[in-house]
Every structure is written in structure tokens, then in C-alpha cells.
Amino acid sequence: MKKIIYIFSILISIFSCASDSDDNISQITTTFNFTHSWDNTNVSNANFNTIQFKNENEENLSITKLRYLISKITFIKSSGEELVLDGYNLIDVTNNSKLTYSPVNTIPTGTYANVKFTFGFNNDDNYNNNYQDLNSASWNVPGILGGGYHFMQLEGKFIDNTATETGYAYHAIRAVDNSGATQVFQDTFFEVNLGEVEITNNATFNINMNIAEWFKSPNTWDLNALNNMLMPNFNAQVLIFENGQNVFSLESVSQ
Q1: Which residues form the signal peptide (predicted)?
Q2: Distance from C-alpha of 191 to C-alpha of 248, rounded to nearest angstrom
Q3: Residue 127's pLDDT is what?
Q4: CB 161 within 8 A of CB 224
Q5: Closest CA to 209 of 117, 145, 132, 79
Q6: So what's the pLDDT on residue 116?
Q7: How would you write 179-200 as a 3-class SS string?
Q8: Euclidean distance between the first and the last CA atom of the chain, given in angstroms as a whole number
């Protein structure tokens, strides 16, 4: 009898270890790698500070700064269940910093109906300036414009209609209208949907931002009219939001 109990205990131990091993194998890490382009031309900080790009409005321009915030990376199962990964990432192309982001959370292998992330912060996160690293990066929005944080800073120079090299600051924040007795806000963060993906192993998502799209569609951007003081400009922030819808694309998933 003791021998039978001993053998039974060994079998339980073996199956338990096997189960633990399967659990470990089924949990994978994800990495998000952000690249940048101007339509079909790759862009890095090596291309900055030289007027070499032409936007949809036929204006020649340079890029001197590009930083933007992504958050709320979410994996959605076919059942509709959402796995939201903790954290956010301030991508700084200017300084070649944080172009790759690996959330702390792991996710199970399987097929996901959609993977998405938020450009900027949603209203729950964009509150009270509680993120010390973003504060240190001077990422805050002034209280008169509603506080919270920037979503993007895109800056450079362009040749204006007097053939003069002029600076532009294409900054994205939550749209605010200060023209009345009380502030009126409109949400301008947006979700980027990467589509269905099957995850079988540790996965790297290669995501591209086409910078040219910020100036292209559906609103052809006129830098002569809209080049600075865009943060307090409610209508400009809505236009930026609309143009951002087709900026990001999933290039590939490496596993």
C-alpha cells in the first residue's frame, strides 16, 4: 500500500511540474519597435536639421524635434476580453531614445482579434501631472490650457511664402477652447488599431509612423497659416487629431 501511495505521489509531482512548465511557456513578452518615415523614405535623427522634406502643400521643411507619447497597449481576445498592459512610453526620436518599448506584463499565446494602443493619454491618465519622468522631460501642458501632458511635439523649419526660413511647432494636446466663461474641451487622443495577430512566441511589433501624414489627410496643412501657437488653437488641435488617424501602421510582427 505504501508503495502505491509513493508511486501516486510521484505521478502527481510529474503532472504538476508539466502543468507549471506549460503555464510558463504560454506566457510571452511583447516588444514594440517604432520606426519613422516620410512616405517611402526612412527617417531618423540623422535626417534632422536639414530642409529636405516636402509636405502635401508643397512646402519644404526640416524636422528638428520629434517626441510623442503612447499608452494603453491592449490585446483583445475574440471573446471581447481586453488585456491592458501597464505603462506608457515617451518616444524621443530627436535623441534616439525609447524607440523600443517592452511592457512589464506578459500575455498568453493565442490569436487576438485586435491589438491597439493610445496615442497620448486618455482622460483618466491625462490628469494631475502625476508622472515624475514626464514632468522632468518638460512634457506638461500649462494649467491655462487644461493641464495634463502633451501627446506630441513635432518641430522644425520651413520655407514660407516670402522665401524665408521660419520655425514651426506642431504640438498635439487635448483641444481646449478658452473663448467663453468656462473652458471647453474635446478629446484628441486616439486609438491605433493594429489588427488581428496570432501570438505563438515572444513577439516584436514593428510599427511605423509616416510623419508626412500629419500634414496630408484629410486636411492639407498650410504651414504659412498654422505654424505656431497651435496648442491654444482649438480648431488646429481638432485638425491634428483628424490627420493622425492614418499616421501609424503595423509593418510586421517578429516571433
Answers
A1: 1-18
A2: 10
A3: 85
A4: yes
A5: 117
A6: 98
A7: CCCCCEEECCCEEEEEEEEEEC
A8: 50
The rounded distance, in Å, linking the Cα atoms of 32 and 10 is 43
Read off the amino acid at residue 91.
I
- Nearest Cα residue to 31 out of 146, 93, 115, 120: 115
**Whole-angstrom Cα distance, residue 153 to residue 155?**
6
Q: Please state, in angstroms and rounded to a whole number, the distance separating the CA atoms of residues 68 and 173.
A: 11
Query: Would you place residue 178 in the very low, low, confident or very high pLDDT band (cuts 50, 70, 90)?
Result: very high
Asked if residues 194 and 209 have their Cβ atoms less than 8 Å apart, the reply is no
pLDDT computed for residue 13 by the predictor: 47
Cβ(119)–Cβ(192) below 8 Å: yes
Long-range contact set of residues 157-163: C-beta below 8 Å, sequence gap at least 24: 157/51, 157/61, 157/62, 157/64, 158/51, 158/59, 158/60, 158/61, 158/62, 158/223, 158/227, 159/51, 159/59, 159/60, 159/61, 160/59, 160/223, 160/224, 160/227, 161/224
Using an 8 Å Cβ cutoff, are 46 and 36 in contact?
Answer: no
Phi, psi (rounded to 5 degrees) for 8:
-60, -40
For 76-99, write each residue's pLDDT tens digit: 999 999 999 999 999 999 999 999
For the chain, how big is the Rg over CA atoms in Å? 23
Q: Please give the grid coordinates belonging to residue 136.
A: 522632468
Q: What is the pLDDT of residue 87?
A: 96
**Cα–Cα distance list, 144 to 36, 64, 172, 188 (Å):** 32, 27, 16, 17
Cα–Cα nearest to 74, from 36, 26, 122, 34: 122
